[in-house]
Amino acid sequence: MKHYIETNKDRFLEELFSLLRIPSVSSLEQHKPDMQHCAERLVELLLEAGADEASVYPTAGHPLVFGQKITDPSFPTVLVYGHYDVQPIDPVELWHSDPFEPEIRNGAIYARGANDDKGQLFMHIKAFEFMVREGLLKHNVKFILEGEEEIGSPSLAAWAMENKELLASDIILVSDTTMISETVPSINCGMRGLSYVEVKVTGPNKDLHSGHYGGAVANPINVLCDMISSLIDKDGHITIKGFYDDVVLLSDEDRAKLSRAPFDMEEYKEFLGINEVKGEAGYSTLERTGIRPCLDVNGIWGGYTGEGAKTVLPSVAHAKISMRLVPNQDSATITRLFSEHFRAIAPDYVKVEVIPHHGGDGFLIPISSPAYKAAERAMTEVYGIEPVPSRGGGSIPVLADLQRILKVDPLLMGFGLERDTIHSPNESYLLKQFFAGMEAIALFYRYYRL
Amino acid sequence: MKHYIETNKDRFLEELFSLLRIPSVSSLEQHKPDMQHCAERLVELLLEAGADEASVYPTAGHPLVFGQKITDPSFPTVLVYGHYDVQPIDPVELWHSDPFEPEIRNGAIYARGANDDKGQLFMHIKAFEFMVREGLLKHNVKFILEGEEEIGSPSLAAWAMENKELLASDIILVSDTTMISETVPSINCGMRGLSYVEVKVTGPNKDLHSGHYGGAVANPINVLCDMISSLIDKDGHITIKGFYDDVVLLSDEDRAKLSRAPFDMEEYKEFLGINEVKGEAGYSTLERTGIRPCLDVNGIWGGYTGEGAKTVLPSVAHAKISMRLVPNQDSATITRLFSEHFRAIAPDYVKVEVIPHHGGDGFLIPISSPAYKAAERAMTEVYGIEPVPSRGGGSIPVLADLQRILKVDPLLMGFGLERDTIHSPNESYLLKQFFAGMEAIALFYRYYRL
């Protein structure tokens, strides 16, 4: 495919940029028209690439895109999953260029979605185009592209239940994750699940003057800090009752296999600008993100947050809290356990609300499957080195749903790198990875046989 | 003065409203022109009321207003202190009417500054006007009105040092506090001091994806919560080393005297909408706000605080923290102790910054002074009941400075009520209190002799 990329490079970038320019932020109501616009653009791109059919499917939330090319019903069928929605762009002042006006700097594309997931899903469209146009395609290919991944995919599972036939396939192929490093290709064989909640702690029924009431009336920010602080103990263990009940402990052998992944602690700390890592006692950094659950506050706010000083004892404090789960932990159960625990530890002098946001289960993929083997061979060819099987810390909860509903395993060939800072300002995607990914995907088709 | 008020009521309100309409928020840069405008309006009002002279005095910050009428150098001199700056208006969506378009509803004026302190300082201008116009004034009266009280009065102390002669007086008279209740008049004989800081906790050098790093990299919001939580122990004691060293313990007799102030716990809780109060073990609610220091988080923010969910492990978390101090605690010392402590408890995996905002010392006024006695008599006449000496929980740090620089005691005749919710949305001031205050101030002049 190298030659095809060389010839079509500029067109590829211009097409990708046309997607990146659409601000398809799924969590913000104001971008609703952009979601529709982005979905329609994907339909155009799929049809131009060679799909027999492609359409926008409305849902209760943001629209889905489905398109396919049925080459021969007896051929293996690959279902490509991707998402066209992106994260919000704040803090917007930290971006060095417009998040929705892609720019190439130092060999990378800078834009919101450059990697996650517009850049990565676009590689699949172009690998497919290459196979079609060169007459090499010996598979049926289906694309399911959603607009709600960043908000927990509330619509896709239900749609998949009603369209099992349409989505019938032998493998779900996904590029929405990272490789270990530029020189260490890896294939994710497991992802963490997610439980995401918002909490609201209310003290007095109005904001008070902190001079008149300070010391006598519980301050909901202080109380929220106490409550959050109590959720994790000194050893990094989560204190929610029953939280670890369903966690499957890995065998020493499995832990040893995982520890084969190269990891340079000094490099890691330098990249993050930290003096020390911090996590659950008894586990390595890779284990802490790969095989252990965790709890993070993703946002907190309350009281006066403007310029200068305001002596207020606020009425309300809020936080967004998420827990990453490992396979066999059930997201709905964890959300329930959290809610029960958080209400139970609330002192009498405040009122507490827990609002579940979204969640999903983790999953594991057999590395002995034909698809894993094909991906391994393809990546070995592109990178000149055998990829490491890894476990991803992130969550694509909908993949666990699709796996359950369609009874098809997902395979995660991700080409992102840590340096891409997805979800953060200045999200980027290395051109090298972008083109290597296309090549590896085309090779996957060459080697994937049932 | 009752008759004079009756006759001039509408004019008084219209003049006050002209002040309230000026959005003189001292902490926000954008209101700089409004500060000047408000100061100029006060000069007009002072001159119209009968001052011999009144001018706007520029400072490094917001301008000061000074005006005076020297009736006879041998008469006692009253220095009226007030402030024309107001608190910010957020959360603005909770106001039932425009904060800067005063409205009378249910016998109260609703506007930012209706009470704190435009409404209260205005009573002094009108009592003064009455005394002048009726030919009753047997005092010299000076007004010092600043525009920086809500941001810690950074300019007034220096100005007072350079203008000691101009401010020479026998008593500093202030209305910027509350009475115990509508039916229980009180005179504040002490105020708490203040130390106000902002803290910044930095973890990784950029926002991270919480799935990829969660569990392995310290989250600065979680760390900030841990740190804040550790500042107060289970008994409500502040854990900062040396924090209580200079606190003077009250005698049992003094505590008994203070406990004379009527206090209805059920009413208090109902007013605030709380099930339980919370504070330092071993002290009553009035003691907790009157004679004990405390620590409150006035604001906290970090990570994603918008609509929906964002799975970010943020780089930075912030909080605004204030400590209310009791007389003999030194604000600068406490700020230093806080900073040292906060840095000392910061774990290796984060960086911590402490930015001091402003502060001031507390003070106590002798209740045997002629001024206190005059105020007591005036309030007894207006309310038909002897006022209770109380200790205020709030801070007017600049009064401690003025006391030190001018060697004159401040007397706090405040007519606010808890229901006025100053610093909060829907700040109000009861018309009844507004007019009773004018009357009491006029009577103060009648009874105040050296």
CATH 2nd-level architecture of the largest domain in chain A: 3-Layer(aba) Sandwich
CATH class of the largest domain in chain A: Alpha Beta
- Poorly predicted sequence stretches spanning 5 or more consecutive residues of chain A: none
Q: Termini separation of chain A (Å)?
A: 23 Å
In total, the number of strands of chain A is 18
Q: What is the averaged pLDDT score of chain A?
A: 94
Number of domains of chain A: 2
Beta content of chain A: 15-25%
- Radius of gyration of chain A (CA) equals 23 Å
Q: What can be said about the biggest beta sheet of chain A?
A: 6 strands, mixed
Give me the CATH fold name of the largest domain in chain A. Answer: Aminopeptidase
Oligomer: homodimer
Q: Going by CATH, what is the homologous superfamily of the largest domain in chain A?
A: Zn peptidases
Helical segment tally of chain A? 14
Largest inter-chain contact set: A-B, 100 and 100 residues
Which sequence of strands runs across the widest sheet of chain A? 1-2-6-3-7-17
Class of secondary structure makeup of chain A:
alpha+beta
Shape of chain A: globular
Helix amount of chain A: 25-40%
What keyword list fits this structure?
Aminopeptidase; alpha+beta; 450 residues; homodimer; 34% helix; globular; four-stranded antiparallel beta sheet; 14 helices; six-stranded mixed beta sheet; Alpha-Beta Plaits
